[in-house]
C-alpha cells in the first residue's frame, strides 16, 4: 500500500498483522529484552519486513540493530526506514546511490489527542489545518501532521545525527497528497565547524489515507548543488 506514495526505485515490504514466521536474528533478541509479547511480535514482524525489502535489492538477510537514538542500522550503502502502528508494519529501503535518505511513518486514522496536537503543531500549521478541514473534513489532519513530522525526523536524523524538535519543521499538507516541510533548524547547524553536511532546506513528501491508516513518506535524492540547502 505504501508503495503508492514511493518511487519505484525504493523497495517496500509491509504487513497488516504480525507474521507467525517472523524471527529475530542474533543481536535483535537482545533489543527486545523486557518487551511484552505483543511488542516483541511487532518488532519481529517489522524486522522481517526489512529483510524482505532488502532481499528485493539483492541483499542477504542481516540483523537490523539500533544505533544512535534508536535509529535502525542498515547494511553498507543502503538507506531505510521502519514504521509500525496498530494493524500495520512496513519497511522501505534503497541503495544509497538511488536515495540520500528516506523516512516513512504510519498512524491510525483517528484524531490526535488535543494535548499532543498543541505540543507538536506550530501556529501556522494549525491555521492551515483549519482551512484543510473546511475543504476535506474526512481527513484527521492533526494526526496526519504528526505522521508527517515523524517521517521528516526519520529522514533528517541519518543525515545530521541531530535531534529535530516538532517545532523545528513547518509542514504544509496539501489536498493533492503531497506535503512540504521547511526545516527551521537549518540555521542551528550551518555554522562553520559543525561537521554536518548540507542537506535540502525543505523536504518534500507524499501522504495517503487508506484502510483506516494514514501513511507518510519522504525520499530525498542527492543534494542538487548548494542552492536551497541548509548549510550550503
UniProtKB/TrEMBL annotation:
Superkingdom per UniProt: Bacteria
One GO MF term attached to the UniProt entry: holo-[acyl-carrier-protein] synthase activity
Annotated TM spans: none
Cross-referenced Gene3D superfamilies: 4'-phosphopantetheinyl transferase domain (3.90.470.20)
Example GO biological process: enterobactin biosynthetic process
Lineage: Bacteria, Bacillati, Actinomycetota, Actinomycetes, Kitasatosporales
Protein's organism: Streptomyces atratus
Keywords tagged on the record: Magnesium, Metal-binding, Transferase
Protein name: 4'-phosphopantetheinyl transferase EntD (Siderophore biosynthesis)
Any Pfam family hit: 4PPT_N
Amino acid at each position: 500500500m505504501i508503495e503508492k506514495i514511493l518511487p519505484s526505485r525504493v523497495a517496500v515490504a509491509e504487513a497488516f498483522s504480525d507474521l507467525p514466521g517472523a524471527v529475530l536474528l542474533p543481536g535483535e533478541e537482545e533489543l527486545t529484552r523486557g518487551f511484552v509479547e505483543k511488542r516483541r511480535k511487532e518488532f519481529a514482524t517489522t524486522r522481517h519486513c526489512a529483510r524482505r525489502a532488502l532481499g528485493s535489492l539483492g541483499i542477504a538477510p542481516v540483523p537490523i540493530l539500533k544505533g544512535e537514538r534508536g535509529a535502525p542500522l542498515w547494511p553498507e550503502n543502503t538507506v531505510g526506514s521502519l514504521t509500525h502502528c496498530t494493524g500495520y508494519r512496513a519497511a522501505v529501503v534503497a541503495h544509497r546511490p538511488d536515495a540520500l535518505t528516506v523516512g516513512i511513518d504510519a498512524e491510525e486514522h483517528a484524531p490526535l489527542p488535543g494535548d499532543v496536537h498543541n505540543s507538536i503543531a506550530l501556529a501556522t500549521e494549525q491555521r492551515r489545518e483549519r482551512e484543510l478541514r473546511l475543504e476535506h473534513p474526512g481527513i484527521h489532519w492533526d494526526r496526519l501532521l504528526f505522521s508527517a513530522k515523524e517521517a521528516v525526523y526519520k529522514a533528517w536524523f541519518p543525515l545530521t545525527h541531530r535531534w529535530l524538535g516538532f517545532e523545528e519543521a513547518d509542514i504544509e499538507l496539501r489536498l493533492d497528497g503531497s506535503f512540504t516541510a521547511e526545516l527551521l533548524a537549518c540555521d542551528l547547524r550551518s555554522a562553520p565547524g559543525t561537521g554536518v553536511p548540507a542537506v535540502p532546506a525543505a523536504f518534500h513528501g507524499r501522504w495517503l489515507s487508506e484502510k483506516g491508516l494514514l501513511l507518510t513518506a519522504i525520499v530525498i535524492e542527492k543534494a542538487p548543488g548548494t542552492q536551497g540547502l541548509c548549510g550550503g
